[in-house]
């Protein structure tokens, strides 16, 4: 099977985790970029990457690179690409443009000029042109320009991979599914230690933990744009899905998801049912500040409220109480807390053993680890030792 270059995009701070996931799937020549990982793979790996990766947003297949100093050169170079290899007259298409630098400053302009080049090529060769559908295209083209350097890729994913298909309802300020999975992988959770999601909101941490623990593919509930490609291999695709189904394993550990908001618990439960993991999570309406560890330690992952979510409450007092409660009632645990209020994190009153810069959407956050145990460490693995979902039994 032929190999070619591919690019997996992700969120800031998750690049190394994504690279490890890719290597576990068999990717070669991995190169960490800004919010992305470049690698070499086959059509099979392209399918697997979309279906199985937990920290990836999109899989792009580069088809051309060139330099452009102005809009004319951009147009001419886009028009040189043989678009009949990727697009038929019966298919719709859309273009996503991203720009940085001083030469091209408007991504919509780049997308428009590129669209003109593509439709003009079809008109000249066929007399007619394919239609544009910006919302639900058959083929999505990605054009990235940094200064004068242009790269053109075909998007194999479509809707970003954080859209797993289970979170049809959500609470205020939910965390991205990709970010949640990345945080769990960064924590080194061993899939056996008790997992606590004490401010669960929409249930994203708990659901991602349950999916991870059982090797359930993240893409089981959704479609991908590569299924509309002219070279789509339906037999290979079905084989990959069948293998992934066989690789699912039982989970006998404990995942506890709680929230003060009764509505949040109901939303979380419905999301977990759609994901097929409701039986693996114990949901309860509860106040974390009135709770305590249930067994011999565990892993706590938490996205506590910050300014806009607390409204008039005292943010300093809340974070101080949070740290005090962890110290006295969750001894034996490791706590990973992500917050967009960097100042409030200082009032937790515990010394973090790790600090990681991340983004939840456009909001800069810090993920901080607090070791609350006495004696030897428990429940933590090297986060980069990730086992392939198709090989782990």
What string, H for helix and E for strand, traces the elements in order?
A: EHEEHEHEHEEHEHHEHEEHHEHEE
CATH top level of the largest domain is Alpha Beta
User: What share of the residues does DSSP label as strand, in percent?
Assistant: 15-25%
Judged by helices, strands and strand pairing, the structural class is alpha/beta
Number of discrete domains: 2
Distance between the termini: 26 Å
The order of strands across the largest sheet is: 2-3-1-4-7-6-5
The CATH homologous superfamily of the largest domain: Vaccinia Virus protein VP39
Total count of strands: 14
Radius of gyration: 23 Å
Overall, the morphology is elongated
Q: What fold name stands as the CATH topology of the largest domain?
A: Rossmann fold
| Mean pLDDT rating | 93
Low-pLDDT residue intervals, each spanning 5 or more residues: 375-379, 385-393
Q: How many helices does DSSP assign?
A: 11
Major beta-sheet overview: 7 strands, mixed
Structure keywords:
2 domains, 23% strand, Rossmann fold, seven-stranded mixed beta sheet, disordered C terminus, alpha/beta, 31% helix, VC0802-like, 393 residues, elongated
